[in-house]
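Hi L.,

You mentioned the student needs an example of a multi-chain input paired with its predicted structure. This one should do, with 354 residues in total across all chains.
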Amino acid sequence: MYAIIAGGGKVGFFLARELIEQGHEVLIIENNSERAEFIANELGNVVLRGNADEASTLAEAGAERAAVIIAVTGDDPRNLVLLQVAKRRFGTARTIARINDPRNEDLFRMLGIDATVNATQVMLSVLEQEIPQANLIPLLRLRNTDVEVVEAVVDNRSKAIGKPLRDLNLPPESTISVVIRNGSAFFPNGATILEPGDEVVALTRSVHEPRLRSLFFSE
Amino acid sequence: MGCGRVGARLAQMLTHAGHEVSIMDVTSSAFSRLGPEFRGTTILGDGTDQEVLKRSGIERADAFVAATQGDNRNIMSSQIAQHVFGVKHVVTRIYDPLRSDTFAALGLQAISPTIIGANSFYEELTGEPAPKLAI
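Structure written out for the whole complex:
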C-alpha cells in the first residue's frame, strides 16, 4: 500500500515508522526543513519537503496513486482542505483526518472525509468509561452513519430486569448485540433475561439513544 | 470573516449601502481599520469555530464572505456557512489558483487575488487582455 502522511510531527513520524515496519510504502510531507531532515535521518528517504495543502505538492507526492492520505497536522482547516483537494483533484482512494476540535467531526464527514481520528474525543470516552456512574457510553459511531455502538451496565432498579428480551419495549432500530456477565460474553436471544450488573453492548441510531437509556436505568 | 484591508473596506462599503454587517477577526486591533464611523457589529473570534459564527448571527445571514489571509480557514469557514448554516451567498478568497479551481468545482464561489492581480498588471503593461493559463 502507498500511504501519504501530511505532517511530520510526532503523530506523523510514529505512524510512518509503524507503516514502514509493516512493509508499506510511505511518504511524509513536511514543511519545516529541519524537521524534514530529522525524519530523513531516522527513517530514510521518505520525506517530501513542502506544503501538503498546495495542490502542486500533492501532485509531486503522487496523490493520484496513493491508497490513502492521512492528514495529521495540528491544524484542522489545513487537514480538511488538503484531504478534499486530494480526493477531488487527484482521486485519492481513502482520506483520513486527525481532528483537534471534536466539534469538527460532523463537518469533516459531511464534506466527504472517509474517517476521522480525534484524540480529544478518545480521551473523553476513556474518562467516561472510568466513571462508574456513567450510564450509556457511546463506544463508536459506524462510519458515515448515525448508528452507534453503546455500552450500558444494567442497574438494579432497571425496567429491563427479570423479563425476557423479547418482552422489553426496545426502541425501533436497536439491537442488543452482546451481554457480558461475570466476565464472560454471550450473544443474547429473545429468551435472555437480564440481571443487575450485566454489561450490555447495543447497536442503535443516535435518535433512539434516550429511549434505550431509560430502559436500562431507573432514573 | 477577516477584518484586514479588504474585509474592512468591504464592510464599510456594505454598511454605507445600507446593509447590516457583522465582521469577525481574531485580533481586536484589526477593528481599528473600520474607523469610528462604522455602524456594523464587530466579533472577536475565529470564524472556523461554529460557536463564533453563531454569535455573529450567521443563522439569519443572507451572505457570508471569507477574506482572511489563510486559504484553508477561508475555505473551511465558507463550507461551514454553506453546508451547516445554509447561507445562500458565500464568497471566498483563495490565493492559491490551484486550490481556487478545486473549490470552485466543489461549488464555492472563489475570488483569487493572485489571478486578478497578475491579470491587472499584465493588462497595464501590455495593453492587451491577460491570457488564460492552464496553471
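You could point out the following to them. The CA atoms of residues 79 and 107 of chain B lie 9 Å apart. Chain B touches chain A through 21 residues (CB under 8 Å).

Best wishes,
N.
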